Amino acid sequence: MTMPSSTSVRPLADAPGAAFLRSPRPLVCGILNVTPDSFSDGGRFNDPERAVAHGLDLVEQGADLIDIGGESTRPGAQPPPVDEELNRVVPVVERLARLTEVPLSVDTSRPEVMREAVRVGAGMINDVRALRAPGALAAAVELGVPVCLMHMQGEPDTMQRSPHYGDVVAEVRSFLAERMSAAEGAGVSRALTVVDSGFGFGKTLAHNVALLAELQQFTTLGARLMVGVSRKGMIGAITGRPVEQRLAGSISAAVLAVQHGAHLLRVHDVAATRDALAVLAAVAKPREG
Ligand code: 9MG
Asked: What is the pLDDT at residue 63?
């Protein structure tokens, strides 16, 4: 039997701050939304104490990384004022950084939030706007932490009105290549770059399915590949399930993503995802006899 090669990944060039990205196994990034209105857990963790407790629970479940965000990017959402985003995110990053060694990522597009979050302990930036906001590229260069560049067509408030592509895979890939060049040209080390095709961000179900089926095409960009499909609308559309019943669909898509080359999975259900990846790794391991 041919073993899927994507469950063990090539080491990245040495880069300070990127040690966790060099893991030979796929990494599980737990989602911590500190927003009143995210699509799955909106409002559950916008009290800092509850957010920190949930972050520690994600650590207990086996998270390799925790992504903390104060802007809901669900379809139709408007960005909060910058002060509000800072107030939501910074205290949670600061407290969690004191309580766990697990790397923390800040999910933001704003340079002010990137700087403050890294100052208090974040070790990665996850930007759904791929450093296109004014000042974001300069902040990423200055901070020198790994950065996830994600594809999104439009902005969250309108992105699902009429997403349109000629060839979704080719267009998303060329956008990510362009953002990688922009980041590298500005001074972000390629070894610190992660890319993400942005499932559900300005995409129909057919676009999302095409991206998942052709995910290998993103592995040749020369960066780690992140995938976020957990509990998303595409899982609901495929399974016919409401958001609170999408675990099995999310796990199936996560395993497929790893088989197709994903290195980082951004998920709500860390323990279940770790179990699924353990089964995949056991099968992928060379066996005797
Ligand atoms: C913040 N956020 C919500 N969904 C996401 C996804 O699929 N990828 C990344 N990188 N960030 C996301």
From this structure: 98
